[in-house]
Amino acid sequence: MVFGRTDRRKQDAITPVALKLLVAGGFGVGKTTLVGAISEIKPLRTEELLTEAGRPVDDTFGVEAKRTTTVAMDFGRLTLRDDLVLYLFGTPGQHRFWFLWDELAQGALGAVVLADTRRLEDCFAAVDYFERRGIAFTLAVNCFDGAERHTEQAVREALDLDPHVPVMMCDARERESVKEVLASVVEHALAGGAARSPAAV
């Protein structure tokens, strides 16, 4: 306030709404790639090299070339509009790191469950996690080079998804493709997906 007048610049400034989204799925499905493809900042990554000690517990079938793994989370940021900013948290894929999911899920509006048709069963745990907690999610099939293609309906039936859950085909390496998936999550959550009563955990 200057001499009783409001500073016009402050009045016109927009305070963006910040929304938290999770990116989940099985080991090696492309979560780190997705966050890196869309983040407008250098993404925070907590990756470590795969070791011989981890071979008995890390199933690398279909992702034999994978050399690193996320041990805590990936973090990125995307401004969708002047008034809307998304904070992305990629979850670790291996079972032994799932204890971190509860912490990461605190305050999340919704989630992306990334699926690989070569290892579709790997995303069952993430689907179950978000269904049981009433967190809205979009199932995004990561269309790898050379991976077998399936219709949306076939994927939906294979995972026994509820009819209201969006299913999309995407390329985790392509910014615009990822942006469409994230927009779907936000729209689905705001439309009431997250308002469903969660089942008992």
For the structure shown, list the relevant keywords:
6 helices; disordered C terminus; 25% helix
Provide an overview of this structure.
The radius of gyration is 18 Å and the shape is globular. By secondary structure, the chain is of the alpha/beta class. It has helices at 8-12, 31-38, 101-105, 124-132, 152-159, 175-190; strands at residues 17-25, 44-49, 68-81, 84-90, 110-115, 136-142, 167-170. The chain starts with 7 loop residues before the first helix and ends in an 11-residue tail after the last helix. A seven-stranded mixed beta sheet has the order 2-3-4-1-5-6-7, sandwiched between helices.
Helical content class:
25-40%
Number of helices: 6
The shape is globular
For the CA atoms, what is the radius of gyration?
Answer: 18 Å
Query: How many strands appear in the DSSP assignment?
Result: 7
Main beta sheet: 7 strands, mixed
Instruction: Give the low-pLDDT segments.
Output: 47-58, 60-67, 197-201
Following the backbone from N to C, one meets helices and strands in this order, namely HEHEEEHEHEHEH
Strand-residue fraction? 25-35%
Order of strands, widest sheet:
2-3-4-1-5-6-7
